[in-house]
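Q: I have 327 residues here and want to know how they pack in 3D. Can you give me a structure?
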Amino acid sequence: MITTLQDVLKEFKSDMERMEHRIHESLGTDVPLIRQVSKYILGAGGKRFRPLIHLLSARLCGCREHNAEYTLGGVVEFIHTASLLHDDVIDEAKLRRGKSSANSLWGNQASILVGDYLYSKALYHGVRLQNQRVMDVLSETTTTMSEGEVLQLMQIQNIDMTESDYFRLVECKTGVLIAASCRLGAIIGKAPLSREDALTAYGKKLGFAFQITDDTLDYAADQKRLGKVLGKDLQEGKVTLPLIYLQRKADAEERERLKEILRAETVTDGDLTYTLGLMAKYGAVEEALQTAQNFSDEAKSVLTIFPDSPPRQALMALADYVVQREM
């Protein structure tokens, strides 16, 4: 029985080793700087979450080592990695997963151009599969992700951002690629539309659970263990679900102070301590985590259309994992 992330990685170890080889093999460039930056960020400690979700979806739909699942696993990882490179430039980030960010080592120009290369390479490998539905999903996904980046830019320091605004942003920036990873698995597995839609819904809900949990870590993470910097979103003026919930419960004076902190050029240790104190006072992090748990439960519920199998058990375990990451 597969019940934990460790179980998943053990059960599908050989598949993911093959996936890892394909990801690095698919870079295909003789330009040293592209190789350097790409290999650095691809090897920066990520769990290959999206390629794994894609592989499991393909296996759930009956795809058995036809190579397309490994190609598309690399494609979604390239798209994800390109978005990270661009995000770090926009955010002026110094760290990524506890290590120096690519832009802090090679500069913004190199990060943007290598990100562009990875986007282009992802679409190159997608086109070579000669499957129009695959290309439709990839083009729609990358377009929506770009819209998400602009939406996030528009919401910087907007203390009046609504829960609905937040969910739209999360769907564009995070949910759409995870949902696409699932849908692509169903497409190459030639699953009926009902199952393809179920897997897509699973991916979308999983994306919400993943991002909401990630946003709570900005106010509660163990920095050394997870490589998360407390208060990073606050420093960057990003309004996430814990802050939205806090705004609802805080009194007028507290809300005004939070607005000042969010719009300040620099968030001081005192500002962060004050905000964390309010988070604890009103249970905003716990409320956000409960919302993430609800999405996780909904993600698992849509998988009931599939009979029990190791891939289904693995997808259920991943839905639990995303909301149980250590603080």
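Q: Anything worth noting?
A: The mean pLDDT is 93. The longest helix spans residues 193-220.
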